[in-house]
Amino acid sequence: SDMLKNNVIEPLRVSVQEVQASTEAATLILRIDDVIASKSGGGGAPPGMPPGGMGGMPPGMM
């Protein structure tokens, strides 16, 4: 039914807030999904390791 005919008026500010809140919720869900996917993927270097992994033995130690 037509909301205006029923004298139901929703301020623009409320509609904008609804869109912003739903966008933030969707973004949060996608971020959580990415974190879960990266943890269950395995294979790569453990989190926190510097690129290239650990170095070898110092020169002259072989």
UniProtKB/TrEMBL annotation:
Q: Which InterPro entries match?
A: GROEL-like_equatorial_sf
Gene3D superfamilies per the record?
Answer: GroEL-like equatorial domain
Chain segments carrying region Disordered: 39-62
Compositionally biased region (Gly residues): 40-62
- Name the chain's protein: Chaperonin GroEL
| Species annotation | marine sediment metagenome
